[in-house]
Amino acid sequence: MIRTIQKLVDPEDVDVVLPHEHVLHNIGANVAIISSQKSLEIRIEDLIDYRHAPFAHGGRNMLLQNEDEAFRELERLQRSNSSKQVILVVDVTLPVEGRDLLVNKRLSLAKRLKDVHLLTVSTVETTLMNDIVNSGLSIEDQSERIANMLEAELIYGIKREECVAYPGAIYQQIELSGKKMNAQEQVLIRGLAMAQARTHAPVYLSFSVDEKIEPFNFKDIIREWIKVLTDAGAERRKLVLCHADRYCHGESEGSDLSFLIELLDFGITILFDTIGLLALSFDEDCNFNKGQAPLSSPDALVYQRAAADSVPTLRGSMEADGVQECRGPIVVVHSP
Fold this sequence. Notes:
Keywords: Hydrolase, Metal-binding. By secondary structure, this protein is α/β, with parallel strands linked by helices. Helix content is 34%, strand content 21%.
């Protein structure tokens, strides 16, 4: 079963999944508040502008705390659903981005939506991580404390006044600090693995690199993270690598995309951010192909290895939507 903020949902009842969204948040509060356009309504016709440039129109879309605005967008999504199944929207907004502050509005929004279910996430915040590392506990006990904290939030929910919202996944931001995993990362990774093994919740991994340090091959560190997670008991099919777009351009272009194929073959789920702006696929030599796709597509889709017998159907569907033909193994298997 899938735990949404209000109730359990049978996976068989889910038609479309938007796996990486920010429904209500204050991510860009500082920018939006000082903008002369902070009081402007977010118009439907401006959404494409925001997709290309999140801080367009004075960053108005980076301060989405108005429940009615969020409802209007999700209601359009709800109306587009012609099936009898439901839509699942994974809201990965973190506490520092307004998760807890907006619990009441998020619950109210969920009640107003009929066939759209919201899923929120648990996480280990930096301040909490620092407190645990400096607690004087052993490495094992530090990881145990992290696991217990995540497990408690997943089971008992996020409380705000008299309201409780239940997370259905773990979302963890990780800033890689060097070529080797440091002590704090080792504590965190084992805590995440224990929490996942106990609760079976999906774990979203969002990696970034400290720009102040000397460049290094962070793919090796990501491989190590995944190995340690699975060795510690985490289910590989429940691990999700976010923001995979960064591996599809720049220095990752061409043969480096074998890294993504490697993860897919290992059973890891991959999320791309800009699906709908570009259609992504690989040819038989793991080279990257891209073609323009309709801008009305969702922001993020789940990617996994496609079975050989499903490729023609997927390719035909993509061509019908105006996407150029991409030969070789297409890796889109969850396409709303």
